[in-house]
Structures are given as structure tokens and as C-alpha cells.
Amino acid sequence: MTRTRGIIWTRVALIVGAVGLIELLCRLGVIKSLTMIAPSQMALELARMIASGELTAPAAYTFTEVGTAFAVSVVAGGALGALVHVHPRLRHALDPLLVSWYAVPFFVFYPLLVALFGLNALPLIAIGVIFAAPAMMLSTLAGLDRVPRVMRKVARVHRLSRVQEVRLITLPSAAPHLFTGLKLAFAYSFIGIIAGEFILSGGGLGYGIAYAYESFENRTMYALMLFVLLIATGVNGALHIWDGRLARRRGRT
Amino acid sequence: MMRFVDAVAIVAAILLIWLGLYAYAGDVAITSPLRTFVFAAELLSRASFWNHVGATMAAFAMALAISAVAGVALGLVLGMRRFAGEVAEPILSSLYTIPKVTLYPVMLLIFGLGMSAKVAFGVIHGMIPVMLFTMAAAKNIQPVLLRTARVLRLSPTQTALSVLAPAVTPEIITGLRVGFALTLLGVLIGEMFASQRGLGFLIINGIEVHDVRMTTTVTLLVVVFAVAANGLMLALDRRAHHFA
Fold first, then answer.
1. Which residue of B has its CA nearest to A211?
2. Which of helix, strand or coil describes residue A64?
3. In the structure, how many helices (H) and strands (E) does chain B have?
4. ipTM here
5. Is A192:A130 a contact under the CB 8 Å cutoff?
């Protein structure tokens, strides 16, 4: 236990030290304020933007998009994974497509998607789904592959109905992989949408950063960046802790 | 034979989707497959196009070299030192989930416009996955291998060359494959914002001057290159895992 604590404290010290160093360098003028503003100033500006309500509209816009893309990816990716799992022939055929999926730099499609759907939220959600759904699908396949054979036999011996089997046997066995799928689907839809907004869009957090950058509003830009950073690490950290808890509970039973 | 049929089926399905999009949106958004192929052939015979390819490849090669060397070196150190590794891992995996595109202005402010910003952008995308895979490989070396090396009284150099290197190579190749794809992505995005040369520039410029044919064709060429490179590395990857 002391070791775990040591690790956590070292990690905290490392992060605090790094932020402190940047703060110091900015305050001493080693890093010019045109390049980067001090972290404390970023935090103050962010607090001001939240308080004045400036942040509400772009944040709501981005979160709606990310939420939609995440939900669609999880449902579609999970369903496709389950479908492909019961048809090995189809899976074999799709294999080359799936292994090269993440080699394709999808952002190059974004201009095409804008031309297809127009400059609104739809191409952004599409790129989020294109980016996130295969990760969910691959995780679902991995999870279903790891349901022990003997468990399926137990289900048959107990004459479980199809629904019961899924609820009592399949889902609990596949859970760790499904959870990884959720984590990846969130990260990828978030990355895809913020990047899309940054490249070509009329609203949201990514657009706000690009706009502030182009009009030399360093304070706004860094405050928004800090916000995106905090959201990404916050959600990631929460999922990490939840995952650890689930793993411990599985270990007990 | 079956694999051949599958490949044909996949290519046919992609072409059908493409045709469907073309029928839906028309010439203002996307060009038809046939016209794209014809234009691709024409582009490939133009010297000016190869200048853009050269610019992208130069930045990509440099970024990949830095990601690979620094990523493997840091990954090995963090993997061998258990405490440092456990401290670093969650930090690295949250860095991996940050939408790094938003850091682009910072990169520009630090490195200025041009080559070094593109390379830096490729590196921040590609280095972390290489580090994470290398770290996992070094951490998971079976202790019995190291004990055997000690029993056989191998020198540290001999241990590194004949025990450590073969044990971690397969995982590192997987990491490099992922890093390769992400570095390419980073460099291309870099070119889309702040560059006058390179393939990313051609794509975004095509949108700005409504040259749909250029955007579609360069996108196709980039995708074909990425998939082909990934296929080669995947073959290498599978061999390495097979022999290990």
C-alpha cells in the first residue's frame, strides 16, 4: 500500500513541478508572453470565461456532438461486433479492413465530408463515429472471443434463454474488453470532433481555439486549451478509476 | 483463393460506397472514381506534384526517426525501472487521449512556420504510442530469461544483444507500426494549417479554391500509401511475433 501511495505522490509531485516550472519561466520572462502565458493566468481567464457564461455555448455545442458521436459509436460498434462475431466468414473477410483502419489519416477526409454534408455538426459527428466505432467493434470482438467455452456449456445445461445467457454469462465475461472499448470510443470521438472543429467549422471549442489563435487572443486561446485538457484528462481519469474498481470487484467474487 | 475473393469484395464495396456518395452529392463535393484514377495518373507524372510529395516525406521521415529513436529509448528506460514506469504510465496514456490538434498554435508559436513545426507535430502524435508499447515490452520480459543470462555468465553487452533485444523486438515493431500511422497523421494535419507545400496543403488548398478533383485525388493517394505501408509493416510484425 505504501508503494502505491509513493507512486501516486511522485506522480502528483511531477505534474505540480512541471506546471510550477512553466509558471516560473513565464513569470521570469524566459518564455515570452507572446508564446505562452503563465498557467495561473490561464486558470484565471478560464474561471472568468466560465463565470461570464462565454464558455457555455461552445462547450454545449461540442459536448452535444461528442455525446452523439460516442453514443452512435458504442451502439453501432457493439452491434457490428456482435454480428461479425457470429459470422466467422464475414469476420475473416473484414479482417484486412479492420487492421488497416487506424493507419488511414482520417482527417484528410474531413474536407470531403464538409463538401458532402455541408458546414454543420453532421460531418463532425460523422468523423467522430468513423474514428471511434471500429475501436468499439474490435473491443466487442475481443470480449466475445474471451467468453470461456465452459460458461456457454453451463448456460446450455441450465437451459438459459438467449436473453438470460447474454445477461448472466456473455456480458459479465466480456465486460473488461467492453469497458476498454468505451474508453477508446470516448477518446477517439473527442479527438475526432475537436480536431474537426479546429480544421473547418463554425462553432464549438476547437473552433474557439482556432479563432482565438488567428486573432492573436492568447489569453482566450490558452484558457480554452486548458479546458479541453482538463476535460480529456478528467474523463480519462474517472474511467481509469472506475475500471480499477470493477477489476477489484471481479477479483473478489 | 478465398483471400483473393475477399480482397476483391472489399475493394468493390468501397467503390460502391464511393459511387453512392458521388451520386448523392455530385461533382461539387467529390469526383467519380474513374476521373479520380485518371487524374491520379496525371498527377503522378507531374514534377511539381513530386515536390509536394518530397516536402511531406522529408518532414515525415524526420518526425518518424525522432519518434522511433526517442520513443524506444525512453520506453526501455521506463520499462526497466518499474517505479518510474508506474509513475509515468497514466500520465502518458492521458497525454495520448488529448486532442493534440489543439496544441498546434503552441507548436507554431514555439517553432515558427515551416519544417520544424511540421516535424514537431508529427513527433507529438507518434512518440507516445511507441513509448507505451516499448514500455510494456520491457516490463513483461520473463524473469527466467534474465536469470538464464546470469547463470550462463553473459556480459551485459551479450545479455542486451542476445536476450533483451530479441525479447522486446516484436512488441516494438507493433509500436512502430502504430507510431508510423500517427506520425503521418500529425505531419499531414500540420501541413493542412500552416504550410505552402506538401500533400496536406494540397488537400486544404483544393477545398479553398474549389478544386474538388485535387482534394479527392490527393486524399485517395494518401490513403493508398498509408494502407500499403501498414500492410508491409503488419507482415513484418506477424513474422516477428511468429519467430519470437
1. B105
2. helix
3. 11, 0
4. 0.77
5. yes
Distance of CA A52 to the CA centre of its chain: 28
Within an 8 Å CB–CB cutoff, is residue B183 touching chain A? no
User: If contacts are CB pairs under 8 Å, which of residues 116-175 in chain B contact chain A?
Assistant: none
d(CA B219, CA B223): 6
Residues B74 and B143 in one domain: yes
Decide if B234 touches A, using CB distance below 8 A: yes
Asked if B140 and B180 sit in the same domain, the reply is yes
B219 vs A108: CB contact, 8 Å cut-off? yes
Residues 184-203 of B with CB under 8 A from A: 184-185, 188-189, 192-193, 200, 203
Cα–Cα distance for residue pair A114/A123, rounded to 1 Å: 6
Residue-wise pLDDT for A127-158, tens only, equals 899 989 999 998 998 888 888 888 888 888 88
Helix B199-208 with B165-193: angle, nearest 10 deg? 30
In whole angstroms, what is the distance from residue B66 CA to residue B61 CA? Answer: 9
Identify whether residues B152 and B192 lie together within a single domain. Answer: yes
- Name the residue facing B203 among A99, A108, A228 (closest C-beta): A108
CA distance B195 to chain A (A): 14
Residue B213 belongs to domain with CATH number: 1.10.3720.10
Q: What is the DSSP string of A169-197?
A: IIHHHHHHHHHHHHHHHHHHHHHHHHHHH
CA distance A104 to B223: 6
Determine the residue of chain B that is closest to A14 in CA distance: B87
The verdict on B86 and B207 lying in the same domain is yes
Tally C-beta pairs within 8 A across A and B: 150
Domains of chain A: 41-252 (1.10.3720.10)
H helices of chain A, in order, are 2-28, 39-52, 56-86, 88-101, 110-117, 121-145, 149-157, 162-165, 171-199, 204-214, 218-252
Total structural domains in chain B?
2
Q: Which helix (H) or strand (E) holds B174?
A: helix B165-193
User: CA-CA distance, A221 to A219, in Å (whole number)?
Assistant: 5
Alpha helices (H) in B81-155, listed in sequence order: 82-97, 104-111, 115-139, 143-151
Whether B122 and B182 share a structural domain: yes
- Same structural domain for residues B22 and B83? no
Listed residue (A99, A72, A95) closest to A84, CA to CA: A95
Determine the structural domain holding residue B169 and report its residue range: 31-243
Which region among A109-113, A164-168, B69-73, B149-153 has the lowest average model confidence (pLDDT)? Answer: A109-113
For the stretch A177-210, pLDDT in tens is 888 888 889 988 998 888 888 877 778 888 888 8
Residues B11 and B75 in one domain: no
Q: Are B180 and B198 within one domain?
A: yes
Set of cell numbers at residue A78: 457493439
